[in-house]
Fold:
Amino acid sequence: MLIIRFLLLLFLKCGNSIFIMEMNKDFKDDFATLLANSYLSSDATVEESYKVWTELNTLLFSNIPQKLFRFRTCNADSIISFQEGTISTCIANAFKDRYDSLIYINKHGIEKNIQDFIKGGGVNAIWDVFEKGYIYQIFESFFGKEQMEELKNEDAKFSIEDKKKSFYSNLQNLQPFLDLRIKGYIDYMRNDRFTKIACFTEDVKSLYMWDLYADGYKGFALEYDFSKFHIQGCHTCLKNKDCDNVNKNFSNLFPVIYSDKRYDATTNVINIILREILQDMRVPNVLPPIDQLFWYKAYLYKDIKAYSHEREWRIITRCQSQQDADYATIPDLGCLKAIYYGPNMEKRYKKFIRIIAKERKVAEYDVFVDEYDSNYELKIVPLE
Structure:
């Protein structure tokens, strides 16, 4: 296991470039660039965290659309959520898109680094370090004399031949070991119950969205004004780490980044894997801190060709108190402003939902197809 850790440290950096395609608005280009270049250390102070989030939110605040919409089907969960003033969220794997939040890890780049290292004589050089005992000096410089002595005593139990055999055996197992952990993390990100998502769009008249996300025009759409949503979140509070409120709102609203490339998580995932190895070995961590923004960046990239027309925004929420299910709710914080009834909604649903709408004092609109208009455009009229 020691050799695996030692070698992996050499392959941590494999490049982390993402090509961002042109977007419709300059703001979204600026946001994509700012997010890609922002880094929030996992050991950042409250003040440092506040500074990073303030820079992101300063750009976001002035560019959040006055109206964002969410399409819903007429089922019990959606109606109850509307009645109770909540926003339902789910893990990424609950979405229909198989590529949603599917991170990219440069496996071939890692393999090439390993092969280049072997061909370049790196393996023999490392074995020389082990055979001549230099490893103990290196180990002591990282972890201290006490742990070095423990390693040395453990190492003394084995002959030089056994150690050499183990060394080359570990080397052969390095790539399969790494492949297994990488695959595990790709799956984990889509099933992470700590992170949940709610999706919105800028366009309430989209025929595609009504058909796909509102049960073939039989559902409804909700209108939100999120212009003050971030202000009420824990990221903007300097006391968030000392707060004992179990319902902390670590939710943020972001525009989706449409790209021809998946999010490259290589550096972050390898860093996380190495940390897990060190923890398993009960060895002090000597790796650079993890970028905490990784858990937001990974969920914002979508295929530009297939999905850019959706003009999507996402609430990404990270909440410790709701990790026991694939679905969870967060309060809408008074952001709900209106409801739009689909042209094919059943009368029984509409009658019941209208009662709730009046209780919640939100504006109501009918959406319909004008059969005598030559344009492919839904019409919207207010209801009394």
The two ends are 70 Å apart (CA to CA). The longest strand covers residues 195-201. The CA atoms of residues 4 and 311 lie 44 Å apart. Residues 12-24, 236-240 have pLDDT under 50 and may be disordered.
